Amino acid sequence: MTHETQPEQAASKIGTEGVSDIPIAHNERVLSGLLGQTVFAACVLFTAMHLYALNVSPIETWAFRIIHVAGGLAVGFAITAAYTLDRSPGERHIGRVEWLAMIPAVAAIVYAAFAIGYAWFIRETQGTPPAGWVLVHLSWALTIATAIAMISSWIWRGSSRSVHWADAVLIVASIIVAAYLLFVLQRWRMAAGTPFAGQTEFLVSAVGVALIMELTRRVAGLALIAITAVFLVYAFAGPYLPGLLEHRGYSPQRFFTYLYTDNGILGATTAVSSTYIILFITFAAFLQASRVGDYFVNFAFAAAGRARGGPAKVAVFASGLMGMINGTSAGNVVATGSLTIPLMKKVGYHPRSAGGIEAAASTGGQIVPPIMGAGAFIMAEITGIPYTEIAIAALIPAALYFLSIYLMVDLEARRGGMQGLPKDQLPVFRKMVKQVYLFLPIIILIGTLFMGYSVIRAGTLAMVSAAVVSWFTPHWMGPKALLNALSLGARMAIPLIAVCACAGIIVGVIALTGVGARFASMLLGIADASHLLALFFAMCISILLGMGMPTTAAYAVAASVVAPGLQQIGIPPLVAHFFVFYYAVLSAITPPVALAGYAAAAISGTDPLKTAVTSFKFGLAAFIVPFMFFYSPALLMDGTWMQILRVALTAGVGIYLLAASVQGWFLNGGVNLVQRVMLLAAALSMIAGGWMTDLLGVGIGGLVFVWQAAALKAKPKALT
C-alpha cells in the first residue's frame, strides 16, 4: 500500500479498535535470518550498555564518549548496510575490479587490528609502550583500509545474505579508532589540538572524522555533510579570506586532533547524545513498543476528533505529545502524519494544507517541555542553566506556538465550512478516560524531575513505568518486547548520534578558528544601530544554519555562532539561547529547505516546495514569538506573576490577530485586504509587550471588529 491509501482505508477503524491498530508507514524493512539476529543483538547490547553505564556503573567521561561514538558508528554502519542489501533475484558475484579493491582493504584492516591488539598486549604484559613503528603502521593501514572501503561502499552493495565487505571494514575501522584513542587516552588529552600532535594522531583522528561524516551522509542526507564540508574547507582556507572570516590557519595534525577533543566531537553535543538522547529515545521506544504512545493519539482523537476540522486539531495535539520525545521533526511527521494527513483530506482540507498543518505541528513538538526533543538538555549543557529552569521557561512559548497552529487550523476550518469526523469513527472518550493511567510515564517523568531527581534517574523511572503500565493493557511487555524496545531505541538513536557527532565537528571548527567571537562582535556593531535589526539578522543566520539539519545539530551550531553575539549585546543567556533554539526548530518548516514540509509532502502526495511554503504559512504566527522574549522576558517566566499573566494574555491576543490576518477570517466572518493589514499591524504592535503598544493593538483589533460588525449587519447574505 502507498502512504496515502493505507491510512485512508484504515480510517474507518478508528473507534473500538483505536489508532494503535492502524499500521504506520515507514521505510525500514524487517531483517530475518542470521544477519537480522546479529544486527538485533548489536542494537540491544548498544542500548543496554548505555543504560547500565548511566544508572549502575559510570565510565570515565572521555572514555564513555569515545565508546559511545564508536559503538554508534559500528552499529550504524551495520544497520544501514543491512537495510541497503542487494535484494534482486539471483546471486551477486564479485567482479575483478571489486576484488582489486577488496583484497588490499581487508588486508590493511586486518593488519591494523593486529597492530592495535599487539600494542595493547605489550602495554598490559610489559607495562611499556610498544615500538613507535607499530602505531605508525597501524595508522597508515587504518587510513588505507577506510579510504578504499568508503569509496567501494558508494559503488557496490552486498548480497542479500551478508553485509558488504566494505561496510564490514568500516565497522572494524570504527572500533579500531576507539581502541587507539582509549589506548593512548592520557597522552591524547595532553597532545590533541596542540603542536605536539604527530602524524599518527592526525591519521587516526582524520579517519574518525571521515567515518562520522560517512554515517551522517547515510542517515541524515547531504545537507549537514555539505555544511560540515564548508566549515572544514574554511578551517584551511582562513588565511586567504578577507575581513571577518580571516584566521591564521592550522596544521592538519593540530586541526584534526583538536576536533577529537571535548572542544569538538567529544564535547557538548556528544555529551548530550551519550546520555539524554539515548535515554529518552529509548523511552520513546518503550512508549511505542508498549502502545502507550498510541494512546496519546487515540486520546487526542477522542477529545477533538468531532470538532470543526477535527483531524487537523488532533494533528496539533498528537504531534506535540509525540514530537517532544521523537527528536526529529521529519520523523514525527512520518509517525503521526501517516494517519492524520489522510483524515484531514477526508474532512475537506486541501492536501497541501493537510501536509502543511502536520509539518508545522510536528515541528512544534521540539519545543514542548519537559523533553523538547533533547534540545533542553543541550541548552543546559552549553549554558549551565539548570534543566528544570529551562523546562519551566519553555511552557509559555510552547503554548503560544501551538495556540498559533491551532488558531490557523480553526480559522481555515471556519473559512472552508469544514466538519469533524463522525462519532462512530472515533475512539470512545469515556473508554479513553478509563485508561488515563497510561499518561503515568509522562507524569512520573515530570514529577521526579521537580522532586529533585537527576534527569537520568527520572528518565529511567519513566521508561520503567512505561513497561509497567503496559501490563494493564492487552499489549503486555514481556522479555521479548523489552528486547524489541531496546533494539528499536538503538535504531531510532543512531541517526541522532551521528548528527550530534557531525555537529561536534562544526562546533570544533568554530571554537578553533574563533569565527563565533568575530560574528558576535559584528552583531554588537549592528546592535549599536538597532537591537531589532540585530535580532532579525540573528534570526536569519539561525534559520540558515539550521536548514536541512535535525534540530539538535541546528541548535548546537547556531548556539556556537549566534548566541554568544546576542549575549554580548546585553541579552540574558536564557533569552539568547531560547531565541536561537526557537529558530533552529522553525528551520524545519522554512523554505526552500524544509525537511518537515518535504516529509509531509511525501505522505499527502503534493509538491514538496508548495507544501513547505504552506507549512511556513501555518507556522508564521510562531515566528514572532522569539521577538516577544526580548521585549517581554516574562514570557520565559522571568518576572512577577502579574507580569507573566499579562504578557501571556496579550501575546495570545497578538497571536490570534496575526492568525486572523494570515487566514483572512476574523471572529465570525471574512475580512478584506485593508482589514487584514490592520490586523497585521495590531498583531505586530503587541510584540513590544508595553502597555501602550498592547492598548494600540487591542484598539486596532476593536476597530476591525466594529467595521466587520457594521458590514455584516448591512450585507448579511454577502458575508454568510
Description:
The protein has 34 helices and two strands. It has helices at residues 5-10, 33-55, 61-82, 96-126, 132-155, 165-183, 185-191, 199-220, 222-237, 252-259, 268-289, 292-304, 310-326, 329-346, 351-364, 375-383, 387-393, 395-416, 429-434, 440-450, 455-470, 479-513, 515-529, 531-546, 551-561, 563-568, 573-586, 595-604, 608-618, 625-631, 641-663, 673-685, 691-714, 716-719; strands spanning 665-666, 669-670. Helix 8 (199-220) crosses helix 22 (479-513), helix 11 runs antiparallel to helix 22 and helix 14 runs parallel beside helix 28 (595-604). Keywords: Cell inner membrane, Cell membrane, Membrane, Transmembrane, Transmembrane helix, Transport. The chain crosses the membrane at residues 34-54, 66-85, 97-121, 133-156, 168-185, 219-245, 265-287, 314-335, 390-409, 436-456, 495-520, 532-562, 574-598, 618-637, 644-666, 678-707. Part of the tripartite ATP-independent periplasmic (TRAP) transport system. InterPro entries: DctM, TRAP_DctM-Dct_fused.
Structural topology:
Elements: H1 5-10, H2 33-55, H3 61-82, H4 96-126, H5 132-155, H6 165-183, H7 185-191, H8 199-220, H9 222-237, H10 252-259, H11 268-289, H12 292-304, H13 310-326, H14 329-346, H15 351-364, H16 375-383, H17 387-393, H18 395-416, H19 429-434, H20 440-450, H21 455-470, H22 479-513, H23 515-529, H24 531-546, H25 551-561, H26 563-568, H27 573-586, H28 595-604, H29 608-618, H30 625-631, H31 641-663, E1 665-666, E2 669-670, H32 673-685, H33 691-714, H34 716-719
Antiparallel strand pairs: 1-2
Helix pairs in contact: 2-3, 2-11, 2-22, 3-6, 3-8, 3-22, 4-5, 4-6, 5-6, 5-8, 6-8, 8-9, 8-10, 8-22, 9-22, 11-16, 11-21, 11-22, 12-13, 13-14, 13-15, 13-18, 14-15, 14-28, 15-18, 15-28, 15-29, 16-25, 18-31, 20-21, 22-25, 23-24, 24-25, 24-27, 25-27, 27-30, 28-29, 31-32, 31-33, 32-33
InterPro entries: DctM (IPR010656), TRAP_DctM-Dct_fused (IPR011853)
Organism: Billgrantia ethanolica
Function: Part of the tripartite ATP-independent periplasmic (TRAP) transport system.
